[in-house]
Automatic annotation (TrEMBL), chain A:
PROSITE patterns: ZF_RING_2. InterPro entries: RNF11_RING-H2, UEC_component, Znf_RING, Znf_RING/FYVE/PHD. GO terms for molecular function: ubiquitin protein ligase activity; zinc ion binding. Residues 29-41 have a biased composition (Pro residues). The keyword Zinc-finger applies. It comes from Elysia crispata (lettuce slug). GO terms for cellular component: ubiquitin ligase complex. Keywords: Metal-binding, Zinc, Zinc-finger. This is RING-type domain-containing protein. Residues 1-12 have a biased composition (Polar residues). One of its GO terms (biological process) is ubiquitin-dependent protein catabolic process. SUPFAM superfamilies: RING/U-box (SSF57850).
From TrEMBL, chain B:
The active site is at C87 (glycyl thioester intermediate). It comes from Elysia crispata. Residues 3-149 form the UBC core domain. It holds the Pfam family UQ_con. GO terms for biological process: protein ubiquitination. Keywords: ATP-binding, Nucleotide-binding, Transferase, Ubl conjugation pathway. GO terms for molecular function: ATP binding; transferase activity. It comes from the Eukaryota. Belongs to the ubiquitin-conjugating enzyme family. This is UBC core domain-containing protein.
Length: 154, 155
């Protein structure tokens, strides 16, 4: 386990979901740098496009102000999120019609993400939330525990 | 208001169309993220008969972060402090974007029915509650009469 900021280290986590379809669309962009800039480079210019992360709920920090532990946590989280299955809404699921996060109806072709508890959200909506809290918004089930259960019962 | 998320518009419309019983929430005419809320004290509680004004604000990050809610009307309750701040898990670490303005207000209404002195925000009130529940409830009833009676201009 390194603290490298690149996401989706497929090698170590893929065993959680066996032979699964790897969602390798690289839709979660790796942050544009590996380490925080050294202090002498702390100029305003690189901060303009700095992504904001949420190392814990309610905490928002630009990527260059994260502690090493927070970087590790976020990198792990990005990797785990990438292992949750995705799909596109095709209108066949009659139960899930609306994304409870944005409260908009699912439209045909919109990218979705499926959590192990079987709750479904817009990919963009749930990924934003999972980066803050690794729980299902609807049932509050911790997603990593559910991932492990999936692995153990397979 | 430009750039108001569809979710906030929808929630507002639904709140208007199907109001929660005992609760009104009206968006401010100048700021659609700010709601003027009135919660009626639940029956069988020491707050019965009172009308409690609250303010609710949807921060920029909503629904990724919880609404900010505060009692404007003075209330004697172990989980609500002098400034009207509320100790309620779903407003803090148990927030989930599946919750809504409606569910938050219902939870606050429920908190009035079931004060929890073991998880206090105001220690004096909580100590009072734990040492002499009957007297604390009397005090809460008295405050309801004094501060939460119909005259809604009285903060």
């Amino acid at each position: 386990m390194g603290n490298c900021f690149k996401s989706s280290s497929n090698d170590d986590i893929s065993l959680l979901r066996g032979n699964d379809t790897e969602s390798n669309e690289s839709t979660i962009e790796p942050p544009p740098f590996v380490e925080p800039p050294p202090p002498y480079r702390a100029q305003p210019e690189p901060q303009r496009r700095m992504p904001i992360y949420h190392p814990s709920p309610g905490v928002s920090r630009p990527a260059n102000q994260l502690s090493e532990d927070e970087q590790i946590k976020i990198a792990q989280r990005l990797g785990l999120i990438n292992h949750l299955p995705t799909g596109k809404y095709d209108g066949t699921n009659k139960k899930a019609k609306e994304c409870v996060i944005c409260m908009n109806e699912f439209l045909i072709g919109e990218p979705l993400r499926y959590l192990p508890c079987m709750h479904i959200y817009h990919k963009e909506c749930i990924d934003d939330w999972l980066m803050r809290s690794f729980t299902c918004p609807s049932c509050m089930e911790p997603v990593d525990a559910a991932l492990l259960t999936t692995y153990q019962t397979n | 208001m430009s750039g108001l998320p569809r979710r906030i518009i929808k929630e507002t419309q639904r709140l208007m169309a199907e109001p929660v019983s005992g609760i009104t929430a009206v968006p401010d005419e100048h700021n659609s993220r700010y709601f003027h809320v009135v919660v009626a004290g639940p029956s069988q509680s020491p707050y019965e008969g009172g009308l409690f004004k609250l303010e609710l604000f949807l921060p920029e990050e909503y629904p990724m972060s919880a609404p900010k809610v505060r009692f404007m009307t003075k209330i004697y309750h172990p989980n609500i402090d002098k400034l009207g701040r509320i100790c309620l898990d779903i407003l803090k670490d148990k927030w989930s974007p599946a919750l809504q303005i409606r569910t938050v207000l219902l939870s606050i209404q429920a908190l009035l029915s079931a004060p929890n002195p073991d998880d206090p925000l105001d220690n004096n009130v909580a100590d009072h509650w734990k040492s002499n529940e009957k007297s604390a409830i009397d005090q809460a009833r008295q405050w309801t009469q004094t501060y939460a009676k119909s005259n809604m201009n009285n903060h």
